[in-house]
Hints:
Chain A is an alpha+beta fold. Chain A is 23% helix and 37% strand. In chain B, the strands form five sheets. In chain B, strands 8, 9, 16, 17, 18, 19, 20, 21, 22, 27 and 28 form an eleven-stranded mixed β-sheet that branches. In chain B, strands 1, 2, 3, 4, 5, 6 and 7 form a seven-stranded mixed β-sheet that branches. A six-stranded mixed β-sheet of chain B has the order 12-11-10-15-26-23, covered by helices on one side. In chain B, a hairpin with a 1-residue loop joins strand 24 and strand 25. The longest helix of chain B is centred in the middle third of the chain and has 16 residues.
Amino acid sequence: xxxxxxxxxxxxxAVEQAAKAGRKAGAAVAAEAFVSDTxxxxxxxxxxxxxxxxxxKEAGIxxxxxxxxxxxxxxxxxxxxxxxxxxxxxxxxKVVFHTADxxxxxxxxxxxxxxxxxxxxxxxxxxDEKVAAVPVQDKxxxxxxxxxxxxxxxxxxxxSMMTIYQDGTVYTYLANSKGVGGWFRxxxxxxxxxxxxxxxxxxESGSFTKGVVRWADFDxxxxxxxxxxxxxxMLGAKPIPSAEMPLVVSPEIGTxxxxxxxxxxxxxxxxxxxxxxxxxxxxxxxxxxxxLIDDGRLIGATSTAPVxxxxxxxxxxxxxxxxxxxxYLHDCYTAKKGQARSTGxxxxxxxxxxxxxxxxxxxxxxxxxxxxxxxxGIDRGFYLTVVLGLFAAIDQAxxxxxxxxxxxxxxxxxxxxxxxxxxxGGNLFELLKAVDKVGSDLTWFxxxxxxxxxxxxxxxxxxxx
Amino acid sequence: MSKKSQLTRRxxxxxxxxxxxxxxxxxxxxEMLLGATGCKSGPGGxxxxxxxxxxxxxxxxxxxxxxxxxxxxxxxxxxxxFDSVRSDDRKINxxxxxxxxxxxxxxxEGRTFYAYTDSFEPERVYETARYVADAAAAPAAxxxxxxxxxxxxxxxxxxxxxxxxxxTAVEAKIELVKGLTDRAWSADPRVVQALQLLREIIRQVQIxxxxxxxxxxxxxxxxxxxxxxxxxxxxxxxxAFDGRGAYAGRDFFVGDNAFEKVVDAAAAKAVKLLGAVDxxxxxxPVVFGPGMNGVLFHESCGHGMEADLVVKGSNYKDQIGxxxxxxxxxLIDDGTIPAFPxxxxxxxxxxPAERTVLIEDGIQxxxxxxxxxxxxxxxxxxxxxxxxxxxxxxxxxxRNTFIDKGPVPAADIVAATKRGIYITDVGxxxxxxxxxxxxxxxxxxxxxxxxxxxxRPIKNATISGMGIEAMKSIDMVGDDLxxxxxxxxxxxxxxxxxxxxxxxxRVRNILVGGKGEAWTDIEGDKGGSK
Lengths: 465, 530
């Protein structure tokens, strides 16, 4: 993949066309264009053969126009000047019917917007040219190796349910009428594997997912082995009786919890009265060892970019520091509304999304305790490795949860038998305050990272009382 | 909302730039789209939908696709426009997206090779077809493309779109949503936030296959969703959701499906939660109310009957002719119900839609097959091959899935239950592990059953278990079948609109999670019931 001048040009044409349509209507119109140019290869493997291959090359444009405090968004994958001009013009016409909102805005330099022009934004090493250049045959081999590593892990592995290799390279071009603009590039290589293990009557599944920026860092064997290890270790899992006990959260489950938490730290959710973190800036919301950071500039991470989805410089944002809530995640809209500064968290899911607040690379800062030492300190507890439907199971309005779960019983400082068919119940806010140990083993899953964490007590609901 | 942009374990594959998020078009752009195609009534049947690509270009593209020895191939041409009006925090905005593309699939020895282009230029179309043909090439394949002759198919099913989205001005749509916004905010003094989304999608599609079929159809999907947040005197926040969707225009949304009803239901459910007690936990009888609870059986059973998952060893593998549910339970997946969100004249590989009996009186009778995965089972397609857009190859999917009605007067079911919970709306979201059949659903609206009566509303309940076990422990099936044209989208790698339904049904015992007391004396286990 390469920088394409025509895409930089079409972004600027869209902005100019919107302004021109505004002048025709006698109105001041600000506009922004976001072009993404993508190449993706996906290979699904099953039973040591390719099951499906999907090759994608696609580009499209999303346009936002701002007129008298009113904002409209539209997109198309027809990048001809005619189609893009018609889109911009239609947005300028219909935006007058939208609700005016004094906080609607497009960033300029004072808001943190960067003006890099056709030379492009700062390179944060988030792109590896090998990802697009490696021949498809090698990618197929990698996908096959990922499955094979899982199948060969143990004779107890019964089969693979899903093996997916996917990589992508994206060039993003951004321009607005306030001078903000430039382009940047990103790449990723990701794998996901789901296997089953069987022994006697017992049948369990295990899965593992990982994504990296560079082709050379993608370890197919690791994904295969970890998924298989999980499936085999769960064989013979049974419910345990209901009880209150300490909980140890694996890094993978930790990342899911913190990601849920981050959604509630969106300033948009807070300002609209939908988050229980409203009014809590400066308050103690978690235990002392709990420091949660969003870092859009982390070198080598999959969500690293020089700017966010509206051209504001990305940054490192400590959200919760030693248990104290420091800031919400902001974009330019919420910053203007909340008299704050954008934290560079306007995320977009490609050109057809106007975007909204989202995390970049989100992680819980590791502590100093080895994960083994955390488990060693527990007489009887639950080690949580699998949750089903976490986002549905936590009530976003109250933080209450009751999550169907699986994992291992901890007895006298050791992980012993596998457990399934239980629920972990409690409240997310109470759980944050009950975090008593944070491990040293920060582990990344895509753009989410967490070490092992323990919580002093939760309710385990088992079958049979 | 922001949650959507978070990555989950299963969602990473969606991270590519081909965003599936809401977007859309203005009346002017829609006019362009429909004007150019000659489609005036938006039928599901073939005859009235005009061509996007000429038939000879399609025939040539299919020929290129098959030139290197593929067993089967198809070309899927799509033009789509998405228009949405969204009210959030009393602010009303619209979005517009227009997209087009051509997807190419070649199948060789059960393997699928796929690529797409966003160009309708014949040379780009042929080039992409050749790329896919090469990927699927057999070592000793012929290179002389045989010319494929295409024969148009027609269907008796029609899905008229009345009115067309373009027949209503954008300002009128905004006025409509504004009225609904006011209605939501004034539903109760405790409302603190409300969202409404009206989404209209027009997809014009052409499918040409290597066995000579050609289908043209235009699908118009209209969806409306409402979410309401309420805050109690004690500071607790509760939220509830309701929605409807249909392959029809806005004229469909009357009576029980009226937009006003959806808005009122979301508010009423949220307010009820303010007075709710914590759900008990343990294993006990659960009575499912009619209609939208069918989504539970979609998740926990239906997926396991999709041919790709059967091949991969779901719980339903090798079960044809065997009991997979309690006697008296019949499960149907129907793609022919007029206007329902899972209906269509043809699926996305040119097979006519049908009504498929999956379980009949407790016995497994069929699976949901597309062409590729059905062939692996030695079974014909049931017209269940669906794709989200030109960006994806089809996979076996559910359409409108429901448990058929039974003999028990619905009112008798709660009356016969001494202790348990009654779920009106299981819709708190869910997940199913299709390998083991384990499911988990958050419960939206539910009540305690005490002494055969519905008593207090409960909150934060979850139900979980194994689909096949839940179906086997159904002990009462009501006579009040209700089909629900939900605004639900099933998210199995690709998003697809689906409908669901069921009568009142009792499951003798199911694992319920909650923050309330643990219930240990399990009446249902002792076989009390009929």
